[in-house]
Amino acid sequence: MPEGHTIHRLAERHRKLFAGRPVAVSSPQGRFAADALRVDGRVLEDASARGKHLFHHYEGGETVHVHLGLYGKFADGDAPAPAPVGEVRMRMAGGEHWLDLRGPAACERLDPAQLEALHARLGPDPLDEASDGLLAYRIIKGSTRPLMALLMDQAVVAGAGLIYVTESLFRAGLPPTTPGTKLSRRRWDAIWHDLRTLMRAGVAEGRIDTVHSAHMPEAMGRAPRVDRHGGEVYVYRRTGQPCLVCQTPVRTAVLNARNAYWCPRCQKAR
């Protein structure tokens, strides 16, 4: 599932392609047809993101909400648009561009009340300049759940997925099993700042890099990481490989139905 930086990049892309002009909206597949009719021909005023949720805002207060889930993907190109291929849930066309959406977990029209309710279910987004993370810390501090599970809970922190959570905990020197009640405000502030920094870099670069310059391939004389997710990381999907900092083999275990990765030396329980 795409992490929050990818959704923010998509919002920027869609704003650039379509904002400020009328957009033709349809559903070749048919599953979004009724909602598409409600926004077809309207001006797309803006596109925004909150966590892993993407929003297209149309004149008249209508909003289209998209959650890509595990399989959703966008494709776009220059006009004229080609004939739809496969299960295209939503097609947008306007000006010199077209866009197709396939396989999302959600693609729906929301009225202002529904949009507000969805936002209320989400925690603060590290990529939102107005968020300070205090609400997230209050929830974390009051919970005995493991930090990994708390940080991946979109009602606590919106947008951080397994890679960002795994890597931020390594950089903080905390085991993923650390109970939320054990997290000090000082350490939380450092994690929040780190998430914001890493995710902003992800928006800018389009990939997830979490290692410091001293641990990059060129600095260490090692081969670049080869993985479909791209980017240089400390422990994510590096089971059994030496930690880039201390050379201890990286461990993995299932935690809350997800694979957790950590260095037993750099992330010792305190």
Automatic annotation (TrEMBL):
Domain Formamidopyrimidine-DNA glycosylase catalytic: from-to ranges: 1-94
Required cofactor names: Zn(2+)
EC number of this enzyme: 4.2.99.18
Provenance organism: Dactylosporangium darangshiense
Coiled coil: none
Keywords from the named record: DNA damage, DNA repair, DNA-binding, Glycosidase, Hydrolase, Lyase, Metal-binding, Multifunctional enzyme, Zinc, Zinc-finger
Boundaries of every FPG-type domain copy: 234-268
Family as reported in the entry's similarity comment: Belongs to the FPG family.
Superkingdom of this protein's organism: Bacteria
InterPro entries xrefs: FPG_cat, FPG_N, H2TH_FPG, Ribosomal_uS13-like_H2TH, Znf_DNA_glyclase/AP_lyase, Znf_FPG/IleRS
Protein name: DNA-(apurinic or apyrimidinic site) lyase
Record SUPFAM superfamilies: Glucocorticoid receptor-like (DNA-binding domain), N-terminal domain of MutM-like DNA repair proteins, S13-like H2TH domain
